[in-house]
């Protein structure tokens, strides 16, 4: 019989897969549906993240999907998205795979997790600058995804965490840059 953890991860994967499909992120949806039977534990879902490097663009669809699998997995995935977004050339693919939406959702949903907040805000900052889809990301983050509110909540929730403060301020600045709604 399957463990409760495996069923929980599968349920989260299918729920987010359906949501990503509705939003037109078919690659992320397909990846979540296909990979969900393999998620028997947090370790099974995240083992490949251990050696992830900024140049590992082939892993983007799977990494983005992991943002939907609960706080522990999402924290590791947020660090991985931030790592991948360090390369400006990876940012369009991260965006096209639903990275902006899922990072923003994870930041909003897991406000008390400082590691996720720092990595998530760092990823949002990078996704809003330095590539061809940055302007659309800034607009979406502010106007559609509640990004400014989530970033402000991170600042309030972690007033003494220098990493969260630095990355959240950077994300807010990047989201507001050249953005009339910002």
Automatic annotation (TrEMBL):
Extract the InterPro entries matched here: ARM-like (IPR011989), ARM-type_fold (IPR016024)
Q: Which UniProt keywords apply?
A: Repeat
PANTHER family listed in its UniProt record: ARMADILLO REPEAT-CONTAINING PROTEIN 6 (PTHR22895)
Name used for this protein in its record? Protein unc-45 homolog B
UniProt organism field: Zooxanthella nutricula
What taxonomic classification does the UniProt entry list for its organism? Answer: Eukaryota, Sar, Alveolata, Dinophyceae, Peridiniales
